[in-house]
Design brief:
single chain, alpha/beta, Rossmann fold, seven-stranded mixed β-sheet, 3 helices, globular, ATP binding, metal ion binding, metal-binding, nucleotide-binding
Length: 148
């Protein structure tokens, strides 16, 4: 379990995550509203070179970033409004993984088999307001996890 006591810690975690992110990776972020999913994604994107704050993809569903804006193409995806797994086909997420990475919020809105090799991060909000992060680490992430 990783403690993220405040927003700065969540941003810093996202920055550390960016340092090991590779083309083909998928990272999923689960947790209740306000748990810090987008904050972690913002830290990751800033570390990849994004200038300014990344908008939440809640309404757009997919926010794409590509060089020279960032060093690695990334699709930041929010599946909260997805109602059927078939809607994912229209998003082209598999194609994006050939040369980039996915950061997916609300992955529980689709079946687990959709992102079988993803680094699955789950956030909870503790009684003191701090966030606690747990991870399910797939084989593809061995040697990169835990982050240092």
């Amino acid at each position: 379990m990783i403690d993220l006591p405040d927003e700065a810690a969540a941003l810093a975690f996202g920055q550390r995550l960016a340092s090991v992110l590779r083309p083909g990776d998928a990272v999923t972020l689960s947790g209740p509203l306000g748990a810090g999913k987008t904050t972690i994604a913002r830290g990751l994107l800033a570390a990849l070179g994004l200038v300014g704050e990344a908008p939440s993809p809640s309404y757009a569903i997919v926010q794409s970033y590509a060089p020279p804006e960032v060093r690695l193409p990334v699709l930041h995806v929010d599946l909260y409004r997805i109602e059927e797994e078939g809607e994912l086909l229209e998003l082209g997420l598999d194609d994006a993984r050939y040369d980039g990475a996915l950061v997916v919020e609300w992955p529980e809105r689709v079946a687990a088999h959709v992102f079988p090799d993803a680094l699955r991060l789950t956030l909870i909000v503790a009684a003191d307001g701090a966030r606690r992060l747990t991870a399910e680490v797939p084989t593809a992430w061995e040697g990169r996890w835990p982050l240092t």
